[in-house]
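Dear Dr. K.,

Following up on our conversation at the group meeting, I've run the structure prediction for Transcriptional regulator from Colwellia ponticola. I'm pasting the input sequence below exactly as I used it, so you can double-check it against your construct before we proceed with anything downstream. Let me know if the numbering doesn't match what you have in your notebook.
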Amino acid sequence: MKLPVLFLLLLSFNVSAINADTKSAKEWLERLSQSLKQLNFTTSFVVVKNNQAEPYHWLHGIGNDDQELEIFTRLNGSRRDFLRQGNIVSYIEPEHEPYSLISPDIRGPIPAIFRGNFTELEVSYRFISVGRSRVLGRVAQLVRIVAKDDYRFSYWLWLDQKTGLLLKMAILTRQGQLLEQVQFTHLEVSKQLSDNLAQLQLTELPDIISLTNEITTKELAWQVSWMPQGFSVIKSNQHYLNSYNRNDVKAVEFMLFSDGLTEVSVYVNLSKEKFRDPEYASDGATMVFNQIVRGIEVGIVGDIPLATAQKIAESIIVKSASK
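The predicted structure tokens came back this morning:
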């Protein structure tokens, strides 16, 4: 009789510890979200993948009327600046005319969900607060966003104990293999808006454009019949892919899926070839997959394992066939 009682006590203790741990992790993630939206900070970081490091500079602040301001710059190669005033994001690149888009976020190495509501991730991920360590000379809390299945990757976040801001991020497989890492090299938080952001606040951004290469269509011809749990389509259309053959005006169907943290792009079009063995390459956590089966070419891009990309590609069907 004593053994079952002891077992139940241990089980109750473990369940309570897990629940408390999950609550603590979620509180840290919510703090991260608030800090990324409310604090004035200047930071630099490097994205490390495939034994290469890509440096970035990032400024964020709150201007007049509580408008968020951001400057995001890639430091290697051709200079690229991304500017944000509230819901307007501008792209400044030397090889293109400057332009702006309506968007609440700058798309970059830091996932947009880090500024949003982490609750939507609980279908596909578990949150675990692990412990403290030292990153960038600061006390950091390690929080793991752990995938519940083998179809996606896990994320480890080191958060500054003082400000809640991100100091380090790692993307890992279920087996613990490190695929990609973001390491912050400088962080400064201030009460005042930086000079660069104060100047951005007074700057007139380039004209807002619409994506004119999309084709209006009532319904796509193809559909993805399988995606990992938690993924849903957030955008779909027909458009033209850039190619060396400028005379090729064949429309490609595009579907964008997201589980809140990871996005997967799926491209489908008819091909003159009947079959081509799968071709794939990985860039850190990002998988690029392409294959042709039964005259249908499927391309998939996303931060997912190869097996997930293959399974998605194999699930492509004609829409009418599902009725």
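Two things stood out to me. Helices lie at 2-38, 195-201, 306-314. The first strand starts at residue 40 and ends at 49.

Best regards,
J.T.
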